[in-house]
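Lesson 9: reading folded outputs for more than one chain in a single document. The general rule is that every protein is listed as its sequence immediately followed by its structure tokens, and records are never interleaved. Here is the first one.
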Amino acid sequence: MRQGEARGVFGNYQIPPQFLDEVFSNAGKVNPQYESIYRQFMQFSKEDFKELNEHAKKSFFNQGITFSVYNDKAKGLERIFPFDLFPRIISAAEWARLEEGIIQRCVALNLFIQDIYSTKHILKDKVVPAELIFSSKNYMKEMLDIKPVAGVYNHISGTDLIKHSDGEYYVLEDNIRCPSGISYVLTNRVAMKRSLFQMFKEFNVSTVQEYPQELLATMQSVAPDGVVAPTYVVLTPGIFNSAYFEHAYLAHNMGIPLVEGRDLFVDNNFVYMKTINGPQKVDVVYRRVDDEFLDPMAFNPKSVLGVPGIMGAYRKGNVSLLNAPGTGFADDKAVYTYMPDIIRYYLDQDPILNNVKTYRCEKEDEYKYVMENMEKLVIKPVDESGGYGILIGDRASKEEISEFKILISQNRRKYIAQPIMSLSMHATFIEGEDCFEPRCVDLRTFTLLGKDRSFVLKGGLSRVALKKGSLIVNSSQGGGSKDTWVMKD
């Protein structure tokens, strides 16, 4: 925005020319769907908005809306999840297209997982290389021939999207092991209403508060056959897990118990919960414990987080697990490169949402390209999350690039590379500067699949790279979030 054109909290807002700003055009004009909310925010002085921002932060702290990071030097240190009061707006028409593409992708992924653990047609037809699947550390032979209720494996999916400078959405990755972040979507909306109630009620925004009941309905739809009054629980690793707040929040809002592994036991291939009134049979478990630690009798024998024997109960069909163990091979970032083919194979449809061009370092010609062009690429490990282990070529030193070349050469299966995408930017309040500046954003959407039902939450977690010039939006890497408004027609 030109010098002196902006006032108040928007200061001298400057849009980097190579990026797409969702709020302002390159000419400095406010984009139409933001005009009304922009006028409202322009009424705040810097001092008023700082006070409002502090109020929102205190609200998060008082509600316990925090997260922790595993590499904190002080173990157990909790942080407030940074939240920006200026919302991200998505039109009804734009969202309808996104929702259609997200469901298409999640349904195809479910069929893919089902096929891999049964007939393996897609491997026999050589659409996806068999060695790519069997070399994934998240492929689990223990899941072979297990048939979950209604054939659903990825009950809860998180799809990460970016909006590129060309105005199109691209899928960055699929998350179908234990996708997190939904509690921040819900609490962001509560904070927004509390802080800016008069402003919020003037806009026709789709609700997000139905998610806990939709999740419970999904759990109910996949209860084992023949159970008259199923018992549902959320299984957490415990209070030191980085997403413990979310586990507790969802259990509370669904009205079901939050349990740890030590609260459950298996007897005669049935799962029971310890209660003051004696054992109570458990039928459906929304588990937030990673596969490796879920059952020490089947996986890591040193695990104290899981439930010994629960995989035996699952194999017998006496308990349902959400998500199914072993889904992780399907959200491997190398398998991601085959998603367009997977969609065409199972659904006989063209993909609605775009993939980002991706190079598999395992393939000789692509490995050579990556090694020669690393300064133009983002390098990612295929099995990490949280923004860890990533190299952004144009921001890395020669020493860092040299180190990564060695890492890749030692384990080519572990790494993929993608062009450096220009994530869209969004006006974000920066503490210390006390004004709005453009910051890169992405979007994690949340999808539920159950027996004869599917649901995509109208809204999602818009994650913000708070560090100037950063493309990493993860909270563990210093990112924040925004409330995402999907407008009604």
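And here is the second record, again sequence then tokens.
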Amino acid sequence: MKTVFVTVGTTSFDELIESITSSEATQALKARGYEHLVLQVGRGSVFPAADSCPHIRLEAFRFKNSIAEDISQADLVISHAGAGSCLEALGAGKSLLVVVNDKLMDNHQLELAKQLHIDSHLLYCTCSTLTETLRTMDLSVLQPFPPGQPKKFADFMDKALGIK
């Protein structure tokens, strides 16, 4: 069963949870062959019921000690743009779609998502463009993120955040 795992990390990103569980988004996922949607909703006030998405099997939880198993079982990871969440999904070799919270001030997450996209490691969008991105995305263009190179990652983060 093709599975999508969505994570908001430790934050509250209700707009992402509402967007991914919309009828349009779940239809787009179903059209791509996804049958199972697992949501990690964090501290948000939105907690969809298991029967709230008629097009797809839905599970939701707030937090776990580790989401590594959820990531490893997913065919696609959809994440907020937090560095830790992005690195965990990329480190597991998963196709990653990052949804940037464009309502944040001083959005360094957008800079990180843009740089990882330029380097072909992920796709990114906002909540307002999520459904269209799900309909048109080409995951075959993504390149694996090189594992185990902390110096390279530190340099990458410096570059992405404009420090160097």
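What the second record shows: The two ends are 44 Å apart (CA to CA).
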